[in-house]
Amino acid sequence: MTDTSAPGNPNPPQDPNGEKPAAPIMRVLGQYVKDLSFENPGHAPVQSQPNIDLGIDVGATPHADGNGLFEVSLKLSAKALADGKVMFISELDYAGLFQLQNVAQDQLEPMLLIEAPRLLFPFARRIIAEITREGGFPPLLIDPVDFVALYQAQVRRANAAGTPTQQ
């Protein structure tokens, strides 16, 4: 069980007027595997380096309870092809429950779609590495992801389609 009370900041930042504005807070209340799939259609010896097709998607939805709670989902998919044959297919939907406080509206999306997945990524990366190793392959170690560039691409796609970026 997670304690949801926020610890006090003994030295909150001050603005020029002497006011003590509340600093933005992002808390990870939980993280979990929502969905995991690994398909190993046939483990045949491979003479060549497989081509890995990697997909990454990030989405955020407000939690039904409100109170600044959001579920952020990081979806990783990997398909390995060698000699024209599928070696494995792995799909992971890894999510976290985040609580945001004192966050300006214009900073909400960047916090949810950049900072939150940045916190989730190392855990999702480890799961993909372990599941491919358990499938009989060398562990698939996904390179670090530039979530800023991914967010900017998502914003461009959403603007082109005329839809909001949060999913």
Automatic annotation (TrEMBL):
Superkingdom of origin: Bacteria
Predominant cellular place of this UniProt entry's protein: cytoplasm
Cell compartment(s), UniProt: Cytoplasm
Region Disordered, residue ranges: 1-22
GO molecular function: unfolded protein binding
UniProt xrefs under InterPro entries: SecB, SecB-like_sf
Keyword Transport: yes
A GO BP entry: protein folding
Keyword Kinase: no
One Pfam match: SecB
One CC-aspect GO term: cytoplasm
Gene3D superfamilies named in the record: SecB-like
Keywords: Chaperone, Cytoplasm, Protein transport, Translocation, Transport
Family of the protein in this entry: Belongs to the SecB family.
HAMAP family for the chain: SecB
Job description of the protein: One of the proteins required for the normal export of preproteins out of the cell cytoplasm. It is a molecular chaperone that binds to a subset of precursor proteins, maintaining them in a translocation-competent state. It also specifically binds to its receptor SecA.
Complex formation: Homotetramer, a dimer of dimers. One homotetramer interacts with 1 SecA dimer.
Name of the molecule in the record: Protein-export protein SecB
Organism, as annotated: Hyphomonas oceanitis SCH89
